[in-house]
Amino acid sequence: MVSLKQALIDNDSILLGKIAGNWQEAVCIAVAPLVVSGAVEERYAQAIIDSTEHYGPYYVLMPGMAMPHARPNDGVNRDAFSLVTLAEPVAFADGKEVSVLITLAATSVEVHTGVAIPQIVAMFEMPDVIGRLVRMTEVSQVLALIDEADISQYVTGKGDI
């Protein structure tokens, strides 16, 4: 099983202090490193945007943090994550604001629920994690923060992310 940290390293997919004019642009920025790495196809960002416009921002998991994702058949080539922080939060149509986006590309529901969500929950249980991430300027700081989270207690070993 590949960890959140390893997936971010392998895909070179941590971007810090990015500028987005709206949530759609933020989604495109968050998906971009996964397109470059080949984890997803270019159409994945539009699939997330279309899904959000239809269902609302179902992937805003807590104030300040979103996990944009679409279905595996929307252009996912392999399991991957990206982590993007924004210099200024973006607001969704329902008023929810986010400044941290962890994009998930999952090849199956098992990876999504059994591997991805548990790792993200572990990380975002840490005190002031949103504020800490937004203040970070180096990728190494993000990787060290991930190491602080006790992800092992949540991961079942099923799936491969």
Task: Describe the structure in your own words.
The radius of gyration is 14 Å and the shape is globular. The protein is α/β, with parallel strands linked by helices. Residues 156-161 have low confidence and may be disordered. It is built from six helices and five strands, in the order αβααββββααα. It is 42% helix and 20% strand. It has a five-stranded mixed beta sheet. The protein has helices at residues 4-10, 23-37, 43-55, 109-124, 129-135, 139-148, and strands at 14-18, 60-62, 64-66, 80-91, 97-105. It has one domain (4-153): Mannitol-specific EII, Chain A, CATH 3.40.930.10. Helix 2 (23-37) packs antiparallel against helix 3. The chain starts with a helix and ends in a 13-residue tail after the last helix. InterPro entries: Ascorbate-PTS_EIIA_comp, PTrfase/Anion_transptr, PTS_EIIA_type-2_dom. GO terms for molecular function: kinase activity. Keywords: Cytoplasm, Kinase, Phosphoprotein, Phosphotransferase system, Transferase, Transport.
Summarize the structure.
Pfam families: PTS_EIIA_2. By secondary structure, this protein is an alpha/beta fold.
